[in-house]
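Lecture notes, unit on protein representations.

Consider one protein chain, 190 amino acids long.
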Amino acid sequence: MKEQFRKHIEKISPISDEKFDYVFSFFKSKKIRKNTIIISWGDLVAQEYWVFKGCVKASYQLEDGKEKIIRFAVEDWWVSDYDAYFKKNPATLNIESLEDCELLALSLEDRERLCTELPEINNFFRKKMEGAYSAFQRRLVSMLSNDAKKHYEIFVQQYPMLIERLPKSVIASYLGITRETLSRISNSFP
């Protein structure tokens, strides 16, 4: 896990052995079983997570009780309820493991300390947030301007690794369509 995490950081910011060991000392390793709630609606959120192994979903619950999946996080991705994490608000997202997972957890206080002390880590987190914001904006624009078939095409292009890993009901929730609509679209997809 440690070596993979270092490679993850060094895709953006090279770091010395000594500094990496220091950074890594702030992270807590967690093993999570499939279908475990990591963050629950209303929680105070103390950590963000880097996924070493597994898949998690972040979802929102509508007033009628229906769940809407906002995003997924698989290997080398980060996840949390960032509004709750950064602003100390109660969580509005539910974060749940879809597979057995191995995660690294980092508190906001430790994140801030590392960013203050190490410019390369500050650069790393800034670049990760820029990428996440850009991806979120593309998803939002796509959801507002495309039909269900196009949403599915984009999903398949962007996340081919998730097609076999996730149940169709989970993919349908992410796409904002019914399971039946997804089956019809995926059966007509080349």
